[in-house]
Specification:
alpha/beta; disordered C terminus; two-stranded antiparallel sheet; globular; 7 helices; seven-stranded mixed sheet
């Protein structure tokens, strides 16, 4: 904690950044990890999707914020972020930091929303393996300059935010938040950038755009996929595999 604070105060001190990298280094693992981003309110969705990842033998964590009761599951973690809609950028950022520091700094990450359904485990495994080898940032691109700047309205716990437009510019296409992939290189770039410059999270409501903007800052290209189906995921089969 103190080292990361020092980096934020002196973000261009490369020796501090290197000390941090060395402090979290572990034996590299050649694999990927899914982060099911959820909240206590929608834990049933997360547990449903977790069963599907279990069946596919694909490692995962369920991630919620720390200001609500934890989800009762052996692979559930809580991170230092609010468990509400406007806290989502902080939740995803904290989860990526947690994995980098506690699991493996060389792992690839598949970020998944809890309303997705795993319909093709083989495609999931193949896509994750390929994108890990490519060290890619990949997902379905949001390309429009006219993206919805009021998407967060009526979702935020703070009523003032439900009347405020999203205020950051469009830099370039980013991967839509339903599911996207970060190879170990992009993961490290995100963690180091947001450690050096925590202000990147300020004024941010949309975690997928936050990740995309950091990737743009770090000059990591977006590998554009056709849809979340390229990960074997779908929003169209909500309860197909739920046990009766």
């Amino acid at each position: 904690g103190h080292l990361k604070t020092a980096i934020a105060f002196a973000p261009y001190r490369d020796n501090l950044v290197q000390l941090y990298r060395e402090s979290v280094a572990k034996t590299p693992q050649d694999g990927s990890l899914a982060l099911i981003i959820s909240c206590r309110r929608y834990q049933d969705n997360a547990l449903r999707l977790a069963k599907q990842f279990d069946a596919a033998q694909f490692p995962y964590l369920i991630v919620t914020g720390a200001d609500t009761l934890p989800i009762d599951h052996p692979r559930a973690i809580q991170v230092n972020a609010p468990d509400n809609y406007e806290g989502l950028p902080h939740k995803v950022s904290a989860a990526l930091h947690w994995v980098y520091e506690n699991i493996d700094s060389q792992v690839g990450i598949l970020k998944v929303d809890d309303d997705q359904t795993l319909v093709d485990p083989g495609k999931l495994v193949e896509a994750a393996h390929r994108l890990k080898l490519e060290d890619a940032y990949a997902g379905f691109p949001v390309t429009t300059l006219n993206h919805d700047r009021c998407w967060h309205w009526n979702k935020c716990e703070n009523p003032a935010l439900n009347q405020r437009s999203y205020g950051k510019p469009f830099y370039r296409p980013w991967a839509r938040g339903g599911a996207y992939y970060l190879g170990s290189g992009p993961l490290e770039k995100f963690v180091l950038a947001t450690t050096r410059f925590p202000g990147l999270l300020e004024g941010e409501y949309y975690e997928d755009k936050l990740v995309g903007d950091v990737m743009a800052l770090e000059r990591v290209p977006l590998v554009q996929l056709q849809s979340e189906r390229d990960f074997g995921l779908s929003l169209d089969h909500q309860h197909r595999f739920v046990e009766a």
